[in-house]
Amino acid sequence: MTFRCFVRNRDGNCYGLEFITENDEDYRKSGELQAGLAAMNDLVPVS
Predict the structure, then answer these.
(1) What pTM did the predictor assign?
(2) By the 8 A CB rule, do 6 and 17 touch?
């Protein structure tokens, strides 16, 4: 999988990204990626 994006902010090893979409398929795939990353984040224990 390849995505184009801009890094908009960084805090240690945490990055804020803005995905670049050029068509509807890119937009759909970036949404799926964001949903998957959010689900993974919910599984990480907060200390």
Answers:
(1) 0.65
(2) yes
